[in-house]
Amino acid sequence: MLPNLDSIQLFLCAVQAKSISKAAEINHISLSAASRRLSLLEQRFGVTLLERRADGVSPTAAGEAMVVYAEGLLQQVEQMRSALSDYAGGAMAKVHLAANVSALSHQLPEQLAAWSRQFPNIRIEICEARSAVIVDWVRQGIADIGIVTATPEPGLKYTAYVNDPLCAIVPFHHPWPQPHIRFEDLLDNDFIGLDKDAASTQQMARQAQALGRPLNQLVQVQSFDAMCRLVAAEQGVAVLPTIVASGFRQPSQFRLLVLQDDWAQQRKMYLCTRHDPLPAPVAQFLHHLLQPLVA
């Protein structure tokens, strides 16, 4: 028979408080009951978990190992409780969706609102991440559907979702006179971009290499917001999704230029899923995402 969760929680509490009496007080039980529970826990595993002294307790080597496993177990139980609470509240199913920041700037929020009105008993759990991470999550089964801007990879199914063209942003007083620019002309500038693992950074590096030009990316940041702020501060230029740049732009901060290259204008966003037959709620939500948005 496995030890109950209350005993495991009591053990962690005693380790954190460095006292069985304090752990008993926190858990609203008597000291004798707490001591018995902990002794039974040790008997169950056949090891001494706590070193008992006059001034308190500390975990033994076995106890240290127990702490790691116990914390992980209780975290999983909490996640299970959270997931099951949705069903207790009337939810009949859950779909795990991973989306990049561009997707959240497109029509996805409106589609989620429409879905919630139409199917309140099927919950959508959303996590934002980079496209490369999302593809791994879909492959591992962590996400049911991924919304990515990435080159389709073997082993997964990619369905075209929306166009996601790139634009260039330059400081407001940048000397380039026209409202559009080719990537080759932009390469004369220092770049601000995401880290080297980002899909957009890798795409720019490939295009620069094809042109036989260096990509002078002197500043790497972790968000599009930081990119826009640094361009506004005249630290360089940047390339990012048009819809994202439009959302960040404020008057007199920076200028948005149409990036004329075909690869930038024809950039697509995909719905990424496994080839396995999809559960009915996942297939239903995937179909919903592919429908035109009705105002």
Automatic annotation (TrEMBL):
One of its GO terms (cellular component) is cytosol. Belongs to the LysR transcriptional regulatory family. This is LysR family transcriptional regulator. Residues 3-60 form the HTH lysR-type domain. InterPro entries: HTH-type_LysR_regulators, LysR_HTH_N, LysR_subst-bd, WH-like_DNA-bd_sf, WH_DNA-bd_sf. GO terms for molecular function: DNA binding; DNA-binding transcription factor activity. It comes from the Bacteria.
